[in-house]
Amino acid sequence: MSVWTLTYDGYDPAQERLREALCTVGNGYFATRGAAPESSAGPSHYPGTYLGGYFNRLCTEIAGREVCNESMVNMPNWLPLTFRPEGGEWFDLDSGAYEILEYTQELDLKKGLLNRRVQVRDAGGRTTTVAQRRFAHMGHRHLGALETTVLAEDWSGVIEFRSAIDGTVANTGVNRYLELDSVHLEPSEEGFDGALSWLAVETNQSRLRIGEAVRLRVHFEDEPVEPEFEYRTHAGHVSCEFAVELAEGSAVTVEKMVAVFGSRDKAISEPLEEARVHVARCRTFDELLVYHTLVWDQLWRRFETSVDPGDGDRVGMVLNLHVFHLLQTVCQNSIDLDVGVPARGLHGEAYRGHVFWDEIFIFPLMDFRLPSLTRALLTYRYRRLNEARRLAYEAGYAGALYPWQSGSNGAEETPTYHLNPLSGEWKPDNSHLQRHVNIAIAHNIWSYYQTTADEEFLAYQGAEMLVEIARFWASIATYNRALDRYEILGVIGPDEYHDGYPDAEEPGLDNNAYTNVMAAWSLCRAPEALDALRPYRQRELWERLSLEREELEAWDDISRKLKVPFHDDGVISQFDGYADLEEFNWDGYRQKYDDIQRLDRILHAEGDTPNRYKVSKQADVLMLFYLLSDERLAELFERLGYECTSETIHTTIDYYLARTSHGSTLSGIVHSWVIARRDRGRSWEQFVEALESDISDVQGGTTSEGIHLGAMAGTVDLLQRAYTGLNPREGVLWFDPALPDAVRELEMTIRYRGMWLGVKITRSSLVVTSDATDSGVCQIGVHDTLHDYEPGQTLEVSLS
Known about the structure:
By secondary structure, this protein is an alpha+beta fold.
């Protein structure tokens, strides 16, 4: 096994949809699932191409109610390409017409290249070998390429090819959405001219126009061939057939280049015209591949995190796979697109391409590798600040309330109902009450600023968002005179299993500990951000936002008096009343169902509810220990008038570790993180399990609908920050390494406040290096010791 190659041997129809998601090729502008070019949507395959930021809204009547959803749109399929030897059947591995002799699919992570090799025998006894390569160009974001080479092993004669662009596709990639309307595209224009063919469509609600143009190039080795192309068109579809003569032992290659443009693009005239012009200018597959590979190489210099676990290449390969899919979803090509980070990537239709809180697991990796991308992704939130203000106002609050699910314009896209696939019932969806999405955004803003010292961003975007988020928390907090405490009522925490109290008519929980503590944190950060601004900009913001000293004094008061619930034994309660819930029969349900990750669906199907039990889908209270160090958390609790000792932390962690079903792929990351210091072996085991979330599809079918981007980035960040103790704070870059016993060495390159730093950590030393031509001066802290650091210096610190 290579750390740079994901390999599948043998054809397995039951695994194809999973492989298609994991073999997606993309470039931060568009991505195409790794479906075979000859395949079509069905039980075993789901071709899909998605453009970041392209949404469309459809409404469906379900159970007497109108359900409206905005979805990331499945775009016209540019892949279709198949062949047949004269008199034979069209090549299709699922048709039964071909005996599969060999099958290998390899995703080259280093080059961003999907390779496929198939050898088949048809009913006439003819043996044919097919080799295919595919990429979405990382240097030219509008271009993609598919190369197909067909070798006649033991026959000669005419071979026919069929290529197409299919705009009649729909969003049917998620089974539980199949009752919903799924046709988002209206055909607009089809055409062809020689080796060129094209198609334009328009979304039927958002009226976004998309143009795709394809150019075919046929050659024997390096000798070009100009066959006669026969085209057929109908609404939303254009196809082309052609034939060439093949001698035994010879091969023919068909290059299919695509250009994709949409009406959200900048510096264009019209999408279809741009697509035709760009694809006509395309060089050959190999020439395009050279530049594509170069850009990937440059990205890997920034993002590679090399770890030596001493037990093979599996860990390294999966880490590289996770970085690879992150960069295919968002990278330098995304910076000017006005897109957020879709929780399931550009790899499928689960969660409808929406943006959640998952970015809290993603941005820390970006902060240290490609901070300009973090800034662009935070700008997605800033552009939707007015919509967040409107959401707060409509809910009866001040400030800004960001939606739990965001899409095109920042409106709340959380569905009002969702389908339980176990029971077939449509149930109310109360997850919009997860107000803690505001915490994620505030934390991301502050972490970015601490890492980059980007004063312009803080002055013109970040501080304003922090102020409006603080205003929201101040307005949602209600004063309990009897307790002399502020409370936050009627919300849902990260757990999600609990959306209300047992038998309560209204949804929501009171005083979720994570929400309350981090709301206090947010109320502290907004004034700190204002104080960090230069006087003239500070004055401008005070004027524009109508800030008054009394308002900041109120924030200070609330940040000192928010209630944090505790069990009688000192464990931090997830919310008021959690300690009174029933204990759950974990052993009994594991025996009954084996896989109980989605306990909520199991219990609802039984006519029960997780609201009755001490169960968690994922880390909730434990998110506090994920986001804040023990020292910072103790300071925050002291500010709130509580004590948070090491014993409190350890007891609370152990309590919830025993009561979590890991129904989210994010859960294992947090659990590994919070025990990284006191139980390194167990932390590493949790980390390795988290690595397997998508590649092994541990949730049993969800990855085929889209990868879990937060979990992927979170595993890499766990190495980057948890095991290194990396923490930018108050102008110092702190390290406190604690490598697990299984790890002998960890190496990475990070960017801190404009300076590139090489970091190498072993069990005995920490070494920091940089280029002498770099600029900047910084302080590096290791354990409790500060070191002044200048470019070109080698800082080596013993860890013994």
